[in-house]
Amino acid sequence: MMKNRRRPIGRQRGAALLLAMLVVTLVATLASAAVWQQWRSAEVEAAERQRVQASWILTGALDWARLILREDARGNRNSGHADHLGEPWATPLEEAQLSSFLAADKNNNSNSADDMLPAFMSGEMSDAQSRLNALNLVRSTGSGAKTQVEVSPPDLAAFTKLYQLLDRPQAELDNLVSALLNTSNLTLNDPKPSPTPLLPTRFAQLGWLGVSPASLKALQPHVTVLPERSTLNLNTASAEALSASIPGLDLAQAQLLVSERADRPFRDLPGAQARIPGATSETVNSQQHDVRSRFFEVRVRLRLDDTVTEEHSLVVRNGLNVNVRWRERVAARP
Q1: Which residues form the T2SS protein K second SAM-like domain (predicted)?
Q2: If you ran DSSP here, which 8-state letter would residue 247 be given?
Q3: Model pTM score
Q4: Has residue 2 got a pLDDT over 70?
Q5: How is the chain split into domains, by residue range?
Q6: What is the three-class DSSP state of 285?
């Protein structure tokens, strides 16, 4: 009888122990979930705060670049100087801590480096008109209902020579010109959705028109895509772009010209014509060449803690007004 009574008591103790273990497990699970939710909320908040900080810093860097270009335009207007690679806008900004810029600001009220963001910034500006504009390959003639699109012979000759210098296939250039011509014609005359690719607005988008990745890599230092017809700046163009754009100028002569202009930039087109071997008013002209630029690319790289953000922008300068045409964030490696 005594043995039979002890068995239920032992079972009850085992059940109570099991229930206690389940309660402990449930409490631990709920506590872990609460801790994880709190950690996740803190991470999301930190990421959002970092995103907002990065956006403000990048916007400030772009405004700074616009100010530099505006002051350069003011100086050029007063002195008549051309745009060249010896000007302040062409000097790249090496990576520096943001606090060093804030410390140099007399209006900055921060008294301690601990109050400043642990951010590092670098960047550079480049002359977008130092490269041949791919959209120059086609041009519009006439106005209104009589507007027509045709191939631009001087620009086609320049791109043909550039393709030869870079050892790229001529058939690819022919396809690019044909695609640009078809798309531009449909844009003028056909209100229906176009079966052809859209006109590119970025250099990489030339791949839409059949330019291979290998050609994009080879062409990138010498070709760009700008929203309107543009001239080539003789003071900033590469030797390959100079040789391609100026008939009769071989690559060796263009390389020597690049070396000489580093010390003595061209002041105007007549001066360039006098210094470029074999140049005439027909081969170096205001329709294709200039010594001043309106379009510039701005690249800013921001390292905020362990996150790296890079932004590219295209700005256009009209007199003292410097406006942004487009901005884009690009993938960046730490």
Answers
A1: 232-292
A2: T
A3: 0.81
A4: no
A5: 46-104+114-125+305-331, 131-290
A6: coil
